[in-house]
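Letters spell out the chain; the tokens describe the backbone. To illustrate:

===
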Amino acid sequence: MLRRTFIVLAVTAMATWASAAFAELEVGVFVGKVVKVEAGELTMTDNRGGDAFTLPVPDEAEVTYDGKNYKLTDLEVGAPIEVTIEKKGDEAVVTKVAVTKAP
């Protein structure tokens, strides 16, 4: 019984944390580097090399490299990127991921 209670509490806490993390997306342009890419998700760090964070990337988000259309899953680990997040209705969503040239 205690084990079941612990599992329920752990799952609830993780779900609350995950929804809060996605709800806290800020609107703006963010510069960093690619850490990992999966279909619909981009994991990146900022330029200071801080903790990695994962962003949901919708299919309609524009992904470009050198001004040409690109697939999200074609991004390479370590590539410098600019991620644009805009307000769409009540949500902040990724609308553009652009590979940039290293400074």
